[in-house]
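Hey, quick one: can you model this chain's 3D structure?
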Amino acid sequence: MAVLEAHDVVKEFAGFRAVNGVTLALEEGKIHALVGPNGAGKTTLFNLFTGFLHPTSGRILLFGEDATALRPDQIARRGVARSFQVTSLFEQLTALEHILLALASRDVVSRSWWSGTSALRAFEPRARQLLDQAGLSAVAARPASSLPYGQKRALEIALALALDPRLLLLDEPTAGMSLEDVRRTIDLVQRVREGRTVLLVEHNMGVVGELSDRVIVMQQGRIIADGAYEEVRHQPQVVTAYLGQVDV
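Sure thing. Here's the predicted structure for all 248 residues.
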């Protein structure tokens, strides 16, 4: 089953085609990596898939239903969650409070959470479970402002998981990380993949090779290769577009 489909999707900005006729289908239960040089159109495509942008032409299907014109909140309610390239957390809230609010946002009964904290307590066991899954149990009571960069990125993934998504989109999840934090993030993505489909934008080809079941390579708004990592990484057009003229 295709979880997400793009059919001849085009996105233009003042005549410039950032995404140029993209057609693809994401397989259920797989980790897909979207790679390519800067300016290839990867983040634009992410924004199209999550409703932050709408296509100039073409169609996007989500779980078999047309999602071309849906807003981000409508797409999220259909089981899609994403992280962003730049961390965006409430600096004074603790890691636990972040997850509690994310869990409450999904629950109709808890829509009055702003009137007090009692409604949030029911979510604490699940919140602590998510923090443990992300390797953040020891820092649950610390404000986001005090967390090192790698833990902030892990907290953002935990926030996405609080929505219990069927499709998880991760935009540059290891960007700017130390080698140790990259290792933790790889392990985290491997742990949370069960029961869901993952699409990640990633420049670290070591991460791509270790995590992905399938690699989609973009250049100048188009898909130029699509397949298993070992199949695509030696293709001449991929070497030229993404790795330069050096084979690996």
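One thing worth noting: The beta strands are 2-13, 16-27, 31-35, 57-62, 65-66, 80-82, 167-171, 197-201, 214-219, 222-227.
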